[in-house]
Design a protein that fits this description.
Layout (H helix, E strand, L loop, with lengths): L22 E2 L6 E2 L3 E4 L18 E6 L8 H9 L5 E4 L9 H10 E7 L11 H9 L2 E5 L3 H4 L9 E2 L6 H13 L1 H5 L8 E4 L5 H13 L9 H5 L8
Parallel strand pairs: 1-2, 4-5, 4-6, 6-7, 7-8
Antiparallel strand pairs: 3-9
């Protein structure tokens, strides 16, 4: 069971033919456990939108603690901030936030920089994407290619940095949406039919694993964990 990205995971020798069940965020794991967009049932009430629009007093926000000048997300941020004002929080900026403050930031910002700290890996996207969706901010994503994001999230629910030729062009688009409320609202249309399901850490991991091994009776073996997990995807767009 593992949920960190391959880039931030140490390789170990001797993993061949050692495990016979994988529990992971990847869609090809035996037990898939990840945040999801689910079809909304009639008894689910959207408590965030449309009220959330009334609370937005910041345009772009980012909460970050893990800082490395070599990270792609840091390089992109350093260029983007030249063209648009970004409200920054987190330990790196000397503004650590608690859970309540974090949720308030997501609620009061129009856009949130959902920048992953690793290269593109199969199906890897974290709470950096799903928390903004939950609390009413539009994610601006950097990480996997857009087509990977669209496997899990409606394509009109987020903005991908690779949709634009440069950080400056992205900034111009965000500023345009800030001036056009009706265009901005279109990024919330998915909420009419869907809702975000967050993972209940860590209880859900244990329950799903127990359920699997109790019900799955056929024999199987997982051959090469190193080869499977550390492959890097290619941008097919």
């Amino acid at each position: 069971m593992h949920f960190e990205s391959p880039q931030n995971t140490r390789r170990f020798d001797g993993l061949e033919n050692l495990f016979n069940v994988t529990l992971n965020y990847r869609r090809d794991a035996d037990v898939v456990l990840r945040e999801q967009i689910m079809i909304k049932t009639e008894d689910v009430e959207d408590k965030i939108f449309p009220q959330v629009l009334d609370k937005k007093d910041k345009l772009v926000c980012w909460v970050v603690s893990n800082w490395n000048e070599q990270f792609e997300r840091v390089k992109y941020y350093n260029e983007l901030k030249k063209h648009i004002n970004i409200y920054t929080f987190g330990r790196h900026f000397g503004k650590a936030v608690n859970d309540a403050e974090y949720k308030e930031i997501l609620t009061t910002c129009k856009f949130y920089l959902s920048f992953e700290n690793t290269a593109a890996h199969y199906d890897y996207m974290t709470e950096k994407l799903f928390n903004p969706l939950t609390f009413g901010s539009v994610p601006v994503t950097l990480g996997a290619p857009r087509y990977i994001y669209e496997r899990f999230v409606p394509k009109d629910a987020f903005i991908h940095v690779k949709d634009f030729s440069s950080p400056q062009k992205l900034a111009e688009h965000l500023l345009s949406l800030d001036r056009n409320v009706e265009e901005y609202k279109k990024y919330f249309q998915w909420r009419k039919h869907f809702v975000v399901k967050l993972v209940n850490y860590p209880e859900e991991h244990a329950c799903r694993a127990c359920q699997y091994i109790r019900t799955k009776k056929d024999y199987q073996v997982f051959g090469n964990l190193n080869k499977w997990y550390w492959d890097v995807i290619k941008d097919e767009t």
